[in-house]
Every structure is written in C-alpha cells, then in structure tokens.
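Lay summary

Proteins are chains of building blocks that fold into shapes. Our project writes down both the chain and a compact code for its shape. Here are two examples, one after the other.
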Amino acid sequence: MREFDLEAFLPRFWKALGETLVMTGVSFAAAAVIGILLALWLYASRPGNLLENRVVYAVLNFVINLVRPVPFLIVAIALVGVTRLVFGTGFGPLAATLPLTIVASVAIARVIETNLVAVDAGAVEAGAAMGASPVRVLFTIVIPESLGPMILGLTYIVVALVDATAVAGTLGGGGLGYLALNYGWARFDYTVIWIVVIALVVLVQGLQAIGNRIARSVMH
C-alpha cells in the first residue's frame, strides 16, 4: 500500500468533487425538463385520459421502455461517437452529461407518470365537469395534487445520478469515481477509496435530506 499524501490528494479531491457536482447538476437540470415534459405527455395521451392519443402514447411508452432497462455503462459506451460529435470528445465530465441526461430523462418520465396517474380520478373528472380545459385540469389539478410525490421521485433520481457519475469515472468521465479508480484502486491506496466512499455517502445524504424537506413543505 502506498503512503497516503494528503497534500497531493486534496487538490485532486476538490477537482473530482467539482466534476461530480457539475455532471450531476447539468444532467439533472436537463433531464428534469425533458423527463417531466415526457411524463406530462404520457399521462395526458393515455387511453381514456385528458388528451387521449393511442399512437403518441404507444410510441413514447415504447421508447422509454426501450431505453430504461439498459444499464448506464452500456448507454455511455454506445453513445461515445455521439458525445464526440457533440462535445468534440468522448471523455470528460461534460461529455458524460449526455448519457447521464438520457438515462435520467426516461427514469424521471416513468416516475413522474406514475405519480400523475395516482391522482384521484374524481378530482380530474370534477375539474372537467366544471368546464376546465384538459390543459388547465393538468396544470391546476393533476400537477399540484402530485407535487409532493413528484419531488420525492426527483430526489430519488438525483441520488441515482450521483451513483451513475461514479460509474462514468470508469470511462474517463472524471469525478469521484475516476479519482477512486485511478488514484485509489490502481495505486492500491485504499485511503483514497474510503475518502471517496465517505464523500459520496455525505453527498447523497445531503441531497436526500434537501429533497425530503422540500417535499414535506409542499405536502403541508
């Protein structure tokens, strides 16, 4: 085991932590917008729902079911050519945001759709009976009623994204996963690995606590 050098490690750690936060933040922001829009479209176009469209629903459902089961590692490898085309490189934190966004988008779409479907059908029917348009029912009844669970669902996804950024590190994506692999495992420096593990646990716990607090305030 190599002797741990704190002075040399700290700059690498802060850089890796920053890369993890960038990957998580950028991917989550983009995925939240895309995923929520997909979820609203899925919900509204369901058979028998506000804007029923069986073709649209079938296509969206198929695409989400096609992407969702594929492990992030496989998605990232499959999109290396696309990331090179978009970012000029297939490696690094910015390039990793593309597969992270795609995987998170479909996960958010499915989680949010589930929350929307759980809204009391009686409330939706009452809104429609009062003459509200389908779009108004969606934004004034369905979304507000499901907002608390939606925030908890988004919190689950952002935590999963932190885990995925660690996997991205194995593909040269940077971040804490890259630090643990190249400066911990490859050099048999297990102190580095444990510090990274602790940092990830603290980060995840912090994000979960923030999400829980926001959800509680909304539900109250």
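And here is the second example, written the same way.
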Amino acid sequence: MPKLVGMLRLLETRTGQVVGVRPGPLRLYVFQPDDLRVCLTADMLRRVGLRLRRRVLTTAAHTADHGWLGIPPMEAGDPLPGAVGVGNLTSGASVGVAAWSSPQTAGTEPAALRLALLRRRYREEAHLGPEAVSAAAADLARWRDRVAAWATGPSRPIHAPYAEETLAALCDDLDVPRALEVLDGLMDDEDVAPGARLETVLQLDQILALELPAAIGTR
C-alpha cells in the first residue's frame, strides 16, 4: 500500500496538469453555490484539507445552504488571495466540476445521493439513474450494519495502511471512487481486527460524511 501523501494535488483546468496546492491555509471559492455537485466537491476539498491539518477558508458567489447533504452553509464573499476556485467546467474555475443529473430525489436518503455522486470522479459527468442511488443506499445499510457490529467489541488503534491508502487517494486529485474501493475492501478484510476497522472507518467518515456510525447502538 502507498505511503501517506501529505500534499493535496488537483487537476488545474486551465493547464490540464495535476499540480500541488500551495502549503498554508487552504482558501476555496465556490463559483456556483446553487450547484450541489460543485458544493460537494468544495466540501470534500475542505474536509481533506482539515484532515491534512490545514486551516480552510471558504467563500462563495452568494450564500447557500445544502446542509441536508452534509455540506456546511456557503457564505458570500470575494475570492481570497490565492483561492482555489471550484465551479462548473465553463466557469473558468481552477477546479472544474463536470455536469450531473439525478432522478427525482424525494424520499431518498441524502447520504445515499451523496455516496452515488462521490462514486463518480468530480471532473467526469455523472448521470445517476434510480439504480445508482438504490445501490448506494444498499451499500450504506450494509456498511452501517458492520460498523454497528464492530462497535459492540473492544476498540483497537486505527489500521495505518488502510488509513494511508484512503488519504493518498483523496490527495490524488480527489480520487474519491478509489478511496471508496479501499473502504469497501476494509469492510471485508477479516485480517484486520473489528475494533481497528471501526476506528479506521470512523476516521474516514469524517471526510466522506456518509453517517456510517448511524446504526451504532442498535445491536
């Protein structure tokens, strides 16, 4: 498994090159606060930045609140010096988010929609049919059940190789699909103690925000 990657690297829309984000505070500017996928991408960048112990400052073209999808409110403000712009592919943003569509989401658990979107790389189009959201909901139920079962036993230290591999994927131009594959592998890895799997999953969920501990206490 790869070593921990401490630098966030992103595809620069203007140059087509993957470049490292400068050290220091991570400043984000959201071009389209009404676009859920743009805001989700900015939220993932914010969460990865915090995991890397960087101060994160976010401003947006106007205020918006997508708290139902696990995204903190967007506050209006001008781009801060050196800000990483996040927007759709035609916005001129440095991080270009591809188009997306989804079926009617009424009655859909927000975390299932979030997971279905995260399974597509942010710079690739995501046209989610009902089956994609249903599959995400089924996986969430399965993962939460396992987390609840592990929580009934003793805790163990985080399993460093899995934690490092997931963070390495997230630092590699937000390769969330790869991080989710690693998460799924951890769920089934019987060579890792349940308590270690629990703590590793809980740490990763601080970034993914899929409410994986939701079933703890129900077993």
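What can we say about the second shape? Strands lie at 9-12, 17-20, 26-30, 56-60, 84-88, 95-97, 100-101, 126-127.
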